[in-house]
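Hallway conversation turned thread

IA: we were arguing at lunch whether anyone had actually written out Phosphatidylglycerol lysyltransferase end to end. Turns out nobody had. So, for the record, here is the sequence (880 residues) and right after it the structure tokens. Reply here if something looks off.
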Amino acid sequence: MNSNHKPIQSFRIVQFMMTIYRQRMTRILLPLAVLAFIIWEAGRELKSFNLARMLHELRRMDAAFLIEIGLFSLAAVAAMSAYDYVIRYHFKLQVKPGVTFRYAWISNTFNNVFGFAGFTGAGLRTVLYKKSGVPLGVITSAVVFLSPVVITGLSLLAWGAIVHLYPVQPVLDAHPWLHWALWGMALYLPLFLILQRSKRYAKWFNKGEGPLSWLTISASIGASLLEWLMAGLTFAWIGSYLLHELPVYAIFGIYVIAAIAGLISLAPGGVGAFDIIALLGLQLAGANPDRALAVLLVFRVFYFIIPWLIGLVLAALEMIPRSERLSQLAETGWDYSLNAWQKVWGWPGQYRFLADLGVWALGKLVLVSGVVLLLSAATPGLLYRLRFAEHLLSLPVMRLSHEISVIIGIMLVVLSHGISLRIRRALRLALALLLAGSVFTFIKGLDFEEALFLLFVALMLWISRSRFYRVSAPLNRHNIFIWGGLSLLVTGAYFMIGAGSNTPFMRHIHAKVHLDFFMNRSDYGVTAVFSLILAWVFLTVYFFLRPQRGIGSLPDAQELDKLKTFLERQGGNLVSHMLFLGDKYLYWTKDEQVVIPYARSRDKLVVLGDPLGPKEQVSKAIQEFQRFADRHALTAVFYQASPTYLSIYHENGYRFFKLGEEGLVPLESFTLTGKSNQALRSAKNRFDREGYSFEMIQPPIESSLMEELRHISNIWLDGRKEKGYSLGWFKEPYLQLAPIALLKDPEGRVIAFATMAPAYDHGQTISIDLMRHLPDTPNGTMDYLFTRIIEWGKENDYTTFNLGMAPLSQVGQSEKALREEKLARLVFQYGGHFYGFQGLRRFKDKFKPQWEPRYLAYPASVFLPILTLDLIYLVSKRSD
């Protein structure tokens, strides 16, 4: 295989260009740069287009023509399957002809809409053919074979422009750089033939089997020519219908030049470059600018969008193997029931995949529905329909329907986000609005086309209704700002198009025509403002004044007692005691074998520590908790995850960031003897000699002592706000649950204290939780207090003493560490001004602990810097 690739790789320039193209930024900037250049070249000509007049031209299109061009466009896309039949014959693929056609349709339509330089089509072909049992090596060779073939047909058509088979000279003269693009494309075909017939390079094109046969080469070029010819004819037919003044061959020539420009841009479907060059070419040929823009829009819809939607359905039929469909649906754990449509389909797994693949598209369809309603309301209706509607309905009813259509359009635009998030409540409201919108858009001017489209979208939502399982989603300032701004934008567009299209439309109406149907500029302004305010008020009432569907309720005394019984039976971990602060929610699995403590920060549920319960039940519990979070459009992350559970987190889709290390002192081996412990021994002897005393008091704590400890805590805080979540704070009921270590001066006054936190591991581990001291305590106070607590733990048969976390300790030291961890290392080394990372580590190192790492487990879809900010916010706030 390596020898097959050696000739092509010997070109250093090829290696260099491939290296550059692999860079993501290059793939984004290159199409943008080409598009920017074309727009700069054509800036003056673009100023003559009027969007409002273009929309009016679209509304005048005949339904019979739309059906005809729709069928021809589907035939043009079907012609692209010739590529797959060529590789089926040449590579002897054991795939049925019908299956080959489906694979071709899926790959080609997705590539038309999304493909950069054909990579989308190549990837889908690889997946689909591999699914049918074609060896990966064979299908890879087939994909490589197709890559240089697909533009040979356009190269052949470029020769037609050069020999003046179709007139393209005006656009070439207006933009001389297109001469170079045209000749470059034309010369590609002879270069392709030379390479194919070369024994050296043909090995790479033909699996190492020598030059291709002339039959295969001719069939490949024929398939490419058929693709570009049918696409060009589709464009020319649409153009000839809307642009009666231009001959078909002239429009076809403009398509060829525009297609070359689009191909050079490497943008999906040539978006941008193709459209601008086509617009300029049609305008230079004498076409009306607004009708030229309508040609492009109709071409995009019929040749790209509609075939891709069909490809989306075909992809759903192919991606899940028949034998796995029912089992995969059952394994998801979603509480879905089969509706009538699913039973008709007969393949629940297949239906599930279609819904998963298409939910985001449904959101966009709802967005488009809102835009369609606004555009329909903004552009003047057809006069004969308005006259007929006036005989059936009164003019006030038609005006009211117009205003309601605008309100519904704005609400659908905002609701599209909720549809994309699969929120059940958004689905119900969207269905009601689509049905109402279809009625009112029909009443306002008998616009049955828009009404049918809205009904179609409503039908698609209803069919997919079982996929809308979420009961809520986070509604933050960011979302409110975005969707509020979008509603303002579309409302402003409605006003500008409506006010802008009304005046030129009036000029073409006979003076005797009744004009009460049409609104003036001020009417559009009043409708826009009124509709926007009413839509916002309605959505606010609907979403904010609904019965609250929170993510849970904080535990009460009864649930905390239940938790205590659970921990005594199942055991806990080093952070379990902090759950009794009552600021964390408790998620109990269905069988109540595992409990997961969590808090919410924006769109994340942050679990403190590992799930509590039998280890063999933890993976199942994590999956159940992930589904619970997903029902609220939230993401589950695990904070201070221990190494013991990393494999379980990994199996459930998590990646890791090291937070630091936890210091665990083995009490059996702890001693103050020896040279290395001289500092601790000296501090202890000094404090004992000066009359300081240590006392460990058991709950219940007397109220007078509790007030004294509160006074010390307030002085220590010095007006600072208490932290929360993973840190304890001064809360009297919480402090009454565990022993408290006191340090008293020679006069018997408490100068420092530390609260204990049991690990609920049957008396094996004890931790320090809250530490507070007066500001005038002597040096070494904390050394002495820690030493005495450790000795107390040893005397009371504990085996381990937990010193707590050393944040960012030993993070990012390896050369292969993640860049985020390397950045954390710099913070650890140089962030002492803000937080004493290194000082804390040195202090705890005095007690010779064994350091155990702690991790942040988070899904790959979560952006780590944003997650870090969410965690900082979570720890910095405290629930009383």
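OS: looked through it. The chain has a mean pLDDT of 75.
IA: good, adding that to the notes. The first strand starts at residue 585 and ends at 588.
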